[in-house]
Specification:
This protein is of the alpha/beta class and 457 residues long. The chain contains 14 helices and 13 strands. Strand 9 and strand 10 form a beta hairpin.
Length: 457
């Protein structure tokens, strides 16, 4: 049995186990770590020849960069996060061609695809292609930048020790980030809303507008070679329809439609924005169709729940991928999460209020905690119950109870913090969703260090 086939079979067995947890991404710790380790092959450092004169550098940073060799020059698709990592990829590409770079293409404006452009440029200045609205969806409002930085570091596990690190779901755990964005070069050619078909260095190339993970995204199509570069609208994981670091609403329905449009091209090779390329027309087309259907299914199920008057919490626990899609290796929830997507769709379409008057003006957290303690028979009884559920490894409930106990004036807040740390580590051990795992562990470390002793967020 070949390595890819073995990996596929392994993932199927893992997802069968995971399916018993009602769509969540918690399994037993040994299974969780095996699943995350099995995903490593998707971003092992390599130059992959995807077609004649087309090469993709995987694993040189979190994202991919690709080189298309033309008659008198090359085209670069995406440029990694900074010039240090990009320079290593550029050097590896030079083993296949020393022709000058005639054009650079940004599939979208996320920094891990744009920050290393200068490393590919010599004395000849290339054209740099991007969409008309490029940069319009790069991230959070600057006003919430400080907390966004902290949450981003937790999601990606940037401060985790080597012993705690696994990966980021669609990228390695450790990347060169000190020079992020320092190699960015501004676009010089604007791709109009209708798209663009042109010839660069003798290569026929098409730019197709495709909003999805960002509003400024596009995919690149090479009609002669039948190679499609998807940007971050496709990679080997259920898509990150919402990022827990915090993001503006990502238009889920449009994302599904953009991927469906890609499938219509029936590519011989599909090159994702992260993870390994997919070869073969049937495999590539099926993957894109499945991806589009999975996104649309989560959206449609969420809309049904919304219009039935259900809360986002209830819907998040009910929505599941269709049975025929849940075991697909490119739809395992290593990076994106179905429950997170549901909540994002709800708030993106309706805002924070769930329509239930009980939640219109809820009690303050301290008041809720005091009433919870009263129901439990006092602070001591609530504290004891918190410890009992932790011992039973009911980690989520222990986590929630610790948040009540920490508000009580007569409580042992140090003990509550210790319980919360232990519960977070317990949840992390069971997680195969990399952002969830990284966030649990990072938050536990922040609590343990004392950085979050007073505010706990």
């Amino acid at each position: 049995m070949s390595t890819p086939t073995k990996t596929f079979a392994l993932l199927l067995s893992f997802t069968w186990l995971a399916g018993a947890v009602s769509g969540q991404t918690q399994v037993d710790p040994k299974t969780a770590i095996r699943m995350l380790n099995s995903q490593q092959h998707q971003f092992e450092q390599a130059i992959v020849q995807v077609a004649d004169n087309i090469y993709t550098a995987v694993g040189y940073h979190g994202a991919n960069t690709s080189m298309i060799v033309g008659t008198d020059g090359v085209i670069i698709i995406d440029t990694l996060r900074g010039p240090a990592s990009a320079a290593k990829a550029a050097e590896a590409f030079r083993k296949y061609s020393d022709k000058p770079v005639k054009a650079i293409v940004y599939t979208h404006s996320h920094g891990d695809h744009t920050g290393g452009a200068s490393a590919f440029v010599g004395s000849e200045k290339p054209d740099i292609y991007a969409t008309k609205g490029f940069g319009s969806a790069t991230g959070l409002n600057k006003a919430v930048g400080p907390i966004g930085m902290k949450r981003g570091a937790r999601q990606f596990g940037r401060n985790l020790s080597p012993a705690e690190s696994t990966n980021r779901g669609v990228a390695p755990a450790s990347t060169t980030d000190h020079d992020g964005g320092k190699g960015y070069l501004s676009p010089t050619v604007t791709v109009p809303g209708s798209g663009l078909k042109t010839t660069i260095a003798g290569v026929d190339i098409e730019f197709h507008i495709a909003p999805g993970e960002t509003d400024d995204a596009m995919f690149i199509w090479l009609p002669s070679e039948k190679v499609l570069f998807s940007g971050d609208n496709f990679y080997h994981s259920f898509p990150n329809l919402y990022a827990i670091r915090g993001t503006p609403y990502r238009d889920v329905l449009t994302w599904s439609e953009s991927v469906a449009e890609m499938a219509e091209f029936r590519p011989n090779v599909l090159v994702p924005g992260h993870t390994m390329p997919i070869r073969g027309e049937e495999a590539s087309t099926t993957a894109l169709k499945d991806y589009s259907e999975a996104i649309r299914s989560v959206y449609d199920q969420t809309i049904l729940g919304i219009n039935a008057g259900k809360s986002p919490g209830q819907i998040a626990h009910e929505v599941k991928l269709p049975e025929h899609l849940k075991d697909k290796p490119y739809l395992i929830q290593f990076y994106g999460s179905v429950p997170h997507a549901v909540r994002a769709i709800y708030s993106g379409l309706l805002g924070w209020y769930d329509g239930n008057p009980t939640t219109l003006n809820p009690l303050a957290p301290k008041q809720q905690a005091e009433k919870m303690a009263e129901l439990a028979g006092g602070t001591q009884r609530l504290t004891e119950q918190m410890q009992v559920v932790l011992e039973k490894q009911d980690y989520q409930w222990a986590l929630e109870l610790s948040d009540h106990v920490k508000w009580l004036d007569d409580a042992d807040r140090k003990l509550a913090r210790q319980v919360k740390i232990a519960a977070l580590r317990g949840l992390a051990a069971r997680e195969y969703n990399a952002p969830n795992r990284n966030y649990y562990l990072s938050y536990a470390n922040d609590l343990e260090s004392g950085r979050l002793s007073d505010i706990w967020f």
